[in-house]
Backbone:
């Protein structure tokens, strides 16, 4: 009779020694407490990061049908960015389908995601009825060193919407429906002293693909007034001039971005598509002239774009083109004969943030009000509180 070996084979010293030698040859890792640069490079080549769960950029190696935190099953890849990845998941705890962000395993992105989570929880808690067009955050967990955040599942973003329309622009009636919802979100944020800091078409999503309801997403760069974390923010095409010029910013930067988005929805292309921050400023000056001294005198970066007399340094772009301040009007670019629409945009693009139209003022602008059917207009006016009306009178 053969007696089975019931001992743990790893307790055999010869076995253990042999195993360790093989592991050492495989990984080329010595027993030294501090690995050499050569060993670290070897580890990178073998993609051994976070016990093999991450790639060399700190992104989780996500696979379809895989689980996240033993709760979410990955059913579709939605996209990726500097933060990490976004996936569509089945939530086995609630039985629902959700969007999940898998944050990159880097301190910078984990901190930023933590701030976004904190801000969204605050905004959601103060909007129990979900009336202010801000994405809902559901839950979060930490799994294999990654912050996992679940959100409501939305549809395509406005950039994809414009692209699907062959970059031809859409009707003012549809733009108006989008504008009212974005402004309602911005007014809600302003009521809570919050600056989004990265408003752009990619961060405005349709609730459903064939309907006009939208929600604002991506509050990773956002901050409350008085608690600014970042000084250089916003995607370039939608960046307010005070950011380029190094002037302390307010909630007015979101209104600048909003104006740029509305213009792009109408034409199908960005209004200020600068290839650099210098050309970005040149595009703006081409339509609105040189910034007033009251703005330039606050700038910490004026020397980069202006001489000692506040005259702009006219710099050619990569194609050799020089843009002359005040040489064009916005109506020349968007080719629209609707004076109210042109005025609406111009009020979003005031150089001085103090003079820029606020979300509340925009919601009462003739371009918004005159384009609404009577039934919708009555509902629209109900959204304003008594304090809002007093503010408009002042």
Residues:
């Amino acid at each position: 009779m053969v007696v089975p070996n019931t001992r743990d084979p790893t307790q055999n010293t010869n076995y253990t020694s042999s195993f360790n030698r093989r592991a050492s040859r495989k990984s080329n890792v010595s027993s030294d407490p501090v690995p050499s640069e050569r060993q670290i490079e070897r580890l990178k080549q073998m993609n051994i990061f976070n016990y093999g769960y991450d790639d060399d950029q700190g992104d989780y190696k996500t696979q379809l049908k895989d689980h996240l935190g033993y709760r979410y099953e990955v059913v579709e890849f939605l996209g990726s960015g500097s933060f990490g990845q976004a996936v569509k998941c089945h939530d086995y705890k609630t039985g629902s389908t959700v969007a999940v962000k898998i944050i990159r395993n880097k301190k910078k992105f984990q901190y930023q995601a933590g701030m976004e989570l904190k801000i969204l929880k605050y905004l959601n808690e103060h909007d129990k009825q979900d009336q202010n067009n801000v994405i809902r955050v559901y839950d979060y967990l930490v799994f294999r060193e990654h912050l996992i955040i679940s959100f409501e599942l939305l549809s395509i973003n406005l950039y994809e919407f414009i692209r699907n329309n062959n970059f031809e622009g859409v009707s003012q009636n549809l733009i108006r429906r989008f504008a009212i919802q974005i402004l309602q979100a911005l007014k809600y944020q302003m009521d809570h002293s919050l600056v989004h800091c990265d408003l752009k078409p990619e961060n405005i999503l349709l609730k459903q693909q064939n309907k006009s309801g939208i929600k604002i997403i991506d509050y990773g760069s956002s901050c409350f007034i008085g608690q600014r974390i970042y000084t250089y923010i916003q995607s370039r095409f939608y960046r307010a001039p005070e950011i380029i010029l190094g002037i302390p910013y307010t909630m007015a930067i979101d209104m600048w971005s909003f104006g740029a988005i509305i213009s792009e929805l109408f034409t199908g292309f960005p209004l200020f598509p600068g290839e650099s921050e210098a050309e970005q400023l040149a595009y703006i000056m081409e339509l609105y002239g040189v910034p007033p001294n009251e703005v330039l005198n606050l700038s910490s970066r004026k020397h980069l774009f202006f001489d000692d007399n506040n005259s702009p340094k006219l710099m050619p772009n990569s194609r050799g083109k020089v843009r002359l301040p005040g040489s064009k009007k916005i109506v020349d670019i968007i080719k629209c004969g609707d004076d109210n629409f042109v005025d609406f945009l111009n009020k979003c693009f005031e150089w001085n943030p103090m003079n820029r139209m606020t979300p509340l003022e925009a919601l009462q602008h003739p371009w918004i009000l005159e384009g609404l059917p009577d039934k919708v207009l009555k509902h629209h006016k109900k959204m304003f509180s008594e304090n809002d009306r007093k503010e408009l009178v002042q």
